[in-house]
Amino acid sequence: MRLHEIKISSIDGLEAAAREFVALMGDYTIFAFYGEMGAGKTTFISALCRELGVEDDLAGSPSFSIINEYRSDTTAELMYHFDLYRLESLDEAFDIGVEDYFDSGALCLLEWPERIADILPDDTVKVSLTVNPDQSRTLTVELPD
User: What predicted TM-score, i.e. pTM, was given to this entire model?
Assistant: First the structure.
C-alpha cells in the first residue's frame, strides 16, 4: 500500500487538488471516498469530474438516484458516481448491479463505500477526506500494491 496526502486549504484549492489526484489515478478504476457527512466528498468528486472533462453542471450528488453516469467531453471515458448512503443492505447493492459496474472497466467513484465494504474489489483505491481544525481538508489516497 502506498499513501499520498493532498492538502486542500480552501474551496479555491479544489482544482489543483483534483489535478494532483488525477496524476495519482494510474490505471485504477474504483475509488472509494470515505469521510463524515459534510466533509466535502461530493464537492471533491465534482471537481475531479470537471478535471476529467465532464461538463461543469452535470457532476452533482447522485443522492436521489444512487448512481449518476457521466461521460468525459475530452476523452469520451465513461464514469459512474455512486452515493451509497441510502443503501440498506448488500442485497440492494447486488440488485442495482454494482459488481457489473466494477467489472465494466469504467471509472467508479463511490461515496459511502462502507455500506458495501464486503464486496469492494481488492484493487479499490481508498480515499479519506478529513476536515482539519482550521476547516481545510486533507485527502489521503491509499493505493493498493
Answer: 0.92
How confident is the model over 114-125, as a mean pLDDT? Answer: 96
What are 47-85's pLDDT values in tens digits? Answer: 999 999 987 655 555 445 788 888 888 777 889 999 999
56 close to 50: Cβ distance less than 8 angstroms = yes
Alpha carbons 59 and 69: distance in angstroms, whole number: 9
DSSP annotation of 75 reads T
Distance (Å, whole) CA 64 – CA 42: 13
Q: Where are the alpha helices (DSSP H) in the chain?
A: 14-25, 41-51, 90-95, 98-103
Q: Which run of H or E residues covers position 67?
A: strand 67-71
Whole-number Å distance between alpha carbons of 122 and 110: 15
CA distance 134 to 104: 40
